Amino acid sequence: MPKFSLLKTKLEGVMLIEPTAFEDHRGFFMESYNLKELEELGLKAHFVQDNHSLSVQAGVLRGIHFQLEPMAQSKLVRCLKGAIYDVVVDLRPHSPTFAKWEAFILTEHNKRQVFVPRGFGHAILTLSPNTEILYKVDQYYSPQHDKAIRYDDPWLNIDWPIKNPILSQRDKEAPYLEEILNEINFSKEP
Question: Do the beta carbons of residue 81 and residue 134 sit within 8 Å?
């Protein structure tokens, strides 16, 4: 039995991964990451760091975040507790889906994960209190390459399920995509 299955996405390189969980009266067991199996499905990333976050309230929005080259990051995101509305935005200027986005519901119950390749922005919106996410990255955090785009950018026109999210000061003051276009220079290769 395969340990993972891929579900179709609209954005090239973005993968929605469904791990196989073995459940019984005690709970469940699953492999959340297996280098060999995921490489066979096309996920090519050498992860170097795990990040874990807790959002105490529902409605916390983190993002839209990304890092510029040469410190761009791929991410493998999963929800350990609660539920999130996970948004991925194509920021590769020469991509046919540039400035297009797709959203996924990740929960502790569906156990799904999203692979976000380099060249994409990423945001999460918590749908329940005390939500925890864990994500792997294939490049270390670099403050000088770290960027954000406003969550309500009219060019992106993301359909958020709430009207007034809880934001950090950084995310409130993030520029619109049009303001930082000259900084984005992602290649198609990870």
Answer: no
Catalytic residues: 65, 135
Read off the tokens for 184.
Answer: 């984005």
**Mean pLDDT in consecutive groups of 10 residues from the start of the chain, 190 residues:** 91 96 94 93 94 98 97 98 98 95 98 98 98 98 97 98 97 96 70
Residue 190 CA to residue 186 CA, distance in Å, equals 9
Six token digits for residue 186 = 């992602």
**For residue range 132-168, what is the model confidence (pLDDT) as tens digits?**
999 999 999 999 999 999 999 999 999 999 999 999 9
Residue 131: partners with Cβ closer than 8 Å, 6 or more residues away: 54, 55, 58, 60, 79, 81, 82, 83, 84
CA–CA distance, 60 with 40 (Å, rounded to integer): 35
Q: For position 187, what pLDDT does the model report?
A: 61
List the helix and strand counts (H, then E) for the chain: 3, 13
Task: List the structure tokens of 153.
Answer: 């950018």
Q: E strands within 31-160?
A: 49-55, 61-67, 75-81, 83-90, 101-107, 113-116, 120-126, 131-137, 146-148
Q: Tell me whether strands 131-137 and 120-126 are parallel, antiparallel or unpaired.
A: unpaired
This prediction's pTM: 0.94
Query: Is residue 171 helix, strand or coil?
Result: helix
